[in-house]
Each structure stands twice: as structure tokens, then as C-alpha cells.
Amino acid sequence: MQLDVIAPPGGVMTDEVGAITGELTLAASEDTASVKVQYKDAAEWYTVSPESMDWVKQQLEGH
Question: In this prediction, what percent of the chain has a pLDDT beyond 70?
Fold first, then answer.
């Protein structure tokens, strides 16, 4: 599943580059155990850090 979102205040924390902000795309496995994020329309994907998973799961469940 992929979903375009606007990052929350403070951004979405990633393992690779820290917080990213702005227009983002989330990509989740079927069970949401694995979630990646990218700047919308960018090529690079990053792993969502545990501290941002609650917000990410709320976004995915709402769609």
C-alpha cells in the first residue's frame, strides 16, 4: 500500500537521515511491519524509525 501524506510537526523520523518533512509518500507491507517513506516523487526510500510508527499507522489505517 502507498499513501501520499503531509508530515506532522517535527517530521517523520527515519533510520537513515533523521526527520523528513513536507509532502511524503508512505509505502507499507501488508501487515505494516515494514514501512518506508520518501519525499513525494523522489527516488530514495527511507526506513521509518520506531518513534514515528504510531503516527504512520494512524495515517495508513485512515485510508
Answer: 98
